[in-house]
Amino acid sequence: MDQSAPPTAASERRSPTPAAARKRKGVRHLKQALIDGRFELHYQPIVSVRDGSVASVEALLRWKDPAAEHAELAGLVWLVERSPVIFRLHDWALGEACQAVESWRGTPLYDMRVNVNVSAHVLPRSRLPGRLQRQLRASGLAAKSIALEITETSRMDDFDAAGAQLERLMAMGVELWLDDFGTGHSSLEWLSRLPVHGVKLSSTFACRPGQDRCRAIVTRVVQMAHDLGLRVVAEGVETEEQRDFLAGAGCDFFQGYLFCPPVPAADLQAALEKPTAAPR
Ligand code: G
Ligand code: MN
C-alpha cells in the first residue's frame, strides 16, 4: 500500500483530531473521577458590603487529593462542557451542595444559600429545573437553599431555550447569577436576554491602583446593573485597597481571599467565626 497516499474519509474517522482525542480523554477522566469519588466541594463566603454578614457561599470544585491529580480542573471542565458528562458533574455538585446544607441543619449555616456553578452552554438542553427539584426533594430542602452561577465559558446557541429554563428556576425560587461577568462571551447580550438576579464581576475587575480604565468600567457596570434592578458581587477581592474601591463603586457583595478562602464544608463554621475584613 502507498503510505504517502492522502487519508480517505474512513481513515480520517478512525484517527481523531488532537482536539477530539483530548476531549475524549477528558470525558473518560471526569467520568472515572466521579465514579471513584475523587472530587469534593469547597465553600467560599460571599460577604455583604453593607454589614459584613454572610448569606451565601460559593461551592467550588476541587480534587480531594490535589497532590495525586494532574488535570487542572477549570481546564478539564471546559474541555468536556459540550459532552453529556457535564450533566453528571452538575448533578453531582447539586447533590453534594444539598447534602452540605443538610449537614448544617440546626446551625446558623443552614440558612445560607449555596451557589453552584453550571455551564451556560448546556442550559438550553439541561432540564435543570427538574434535575434540581429532584435533588432538593431528596434532601428535603427548599429552593432558596441553592443559587446557580451561570458560567459563560462558551457561546450561547439558543437564548430563548436558556431563558425559558432560567424563568422556570426563578419561579421555583432559585437565585440566579451571571458568573465572571465582563469576560468571555457577549456579556451584555447575555444580560439583556437572560433573566437573573445579579452579576458576579470577574476578578479581572478587582482593579489595582493606577488602573483608571478598570475603575471607570466597574463604576459604570455597577450603575448599569443597579439600573436593571440587579445586584453585584465583586469577585477576587484580595486587598483592602480593592475592597474600598469596590465598596465605593457600589458593589453589593464581596468574595475573595481578603475575606476567606474556599474551605471544606466541615471547616466553614470555624472560618466564619474569624474576624472579617469587611468594612463595618
Ligand atoms: O466560579 P468562578 O470562575 O468565579 O471561580 C472562582 C475561582 O476563583 C475559584 O477557583 C476560587 O478558588 C478563586 N478565588 C477565590 N477568591 C479568590 C481571590 O481572592 N483571588 C483569586 N485570584 N482567586 C480567587
Ligand atoms: Mn462561580
Strand content: 15-25%
Number of domains: 1
The oligomerization state is single chain
Report strand order across the widest sheet: 1-2-3-4-5-6-7-8
Note the topology:
Elements: H1 9-14, H2 18-36, E1 39-48, E2 54-63, H3 73-80, H4 85-103, E3 113-119, H5 128-139, E4 146-151, H6 159-172, E5 175-181, H7 187-193, E6 198-201, H8 212-227, E7 231-234, H9 240-248, E8 253-254, E9 263-264, H10 268-273
Parallel strand pairs: 2-3, 3-4, 4-5, 5-6, 6-7, 7-8
Antiparallel strand pairs: 1-2, 1-8, 1-9
Helix pairs in contact: 2-3, 2-4, 4-5
The chain binds guanosine-5'-monophosphate and manganese (II) ion.
Guanosine-5'-monophosphate binds at residues 44, 60, 117, 149, 179-180, 203, 235-238, 256-257, 262.
What this model shows, in words?
This protein has 280 residues and is of the alpha/beta class. The chain has one domain (13-277): TIM Barrel. It is built from 10 helices and 9 strands. It has helices at residues 9-14, 18-36, 73-80, 85-103, 128-139, 159-172, 187-193, 212-227, 240-248, 268-273; strands at residues 39-48, 54-63, 113-119, 146-151, 175-181, 198-201, 231-234, 253-254, 263-264. It has an 8-stranded mixed beta barrel, surrounded by 5 helices. Helix 8 (212-227) links the parallel strand 6 and strand 7. Helix 4 runs parallel beside helix 5 (128-139). Residues 1-5 have low confidence and may be disordered. Manganese (II) ion (MN) binds at residues 58, 117, 149, 179.
